[in-house]
Amino acid sequence: MDYGKFKYESAMKAREARKNQAHTVIKEMKLRPKIDPHDYDTKKGHVVRFLKQGDKVKITIMFRGREQSRPELGYRLLQRLASDVEDLGFVESSPKQDGRNMIMVLGPHKKKTEAMAEAREAQAARKAERQGLSAQADESVEDESTAEAPAAEAVAEEHPAEA
Questions:
Q1: Exposure pattern of 45-79 as b/e (b: 16+ CB <10 Å)?
Q2: What's the pLDDT tens digit per position in 19-66?
Q3: Any bridge partners for residue 60, and if so which?
Q4: SS (H, E, C) 72-92
Q5: In this structure, are strands 56-62 and 89-98 parallel, antiparallel, or unpaired?
Q6: Number of CB atoms found within 10 A of residue 90's CB
Q7: Helix (H) or strand (E) holding 102
Q8: Confidence grade of residue 163 (pLDDT, cut at 50, 70, 90)
């Protein structure tokens, strides 16, 4: 066997293996202890999206000034967020104080590859649904145009001068 051919085939196998491999990305979400309820819901939505995509999420609570003397506020906020997203992810590392920040890491229940496959299936289903709806719309347009044609012929027969 030719060595160049062997080298090429092994490189192709390695490329295929890399293609199927998923990179686990750590996304970061930063919060403050005195966060507004709407802002909290928005940030929680981002965390939910990241976990659904199969990514880990690092949640950082930044303390400023006198907030540093009340770390229990940050701890309660992190516990609340963890309980809100417990169906999608789990607490990988519990809240820890790190200088001015408190950090917690959430991991997804699904692996990245499972999440990617699920997303592809959902996208294919949406595409098929859209094509089905457009096909139905085309059929209804054809039905309306065929229904109008005999009526136009009948008008032309009744009034030959107008036609």
A1: eebbebbbbbbbbbbbbebeeebeeeeebbbebbe
A2: 777 677 799 999 999 999 999 999 999 999 999 888 899 999 999 988
A3: 30, 103
A4: HHHHHHHHHHHHHCCCCEEEE
A5: unpaired
A6: 14
A7: strand 101-108
A8: very low
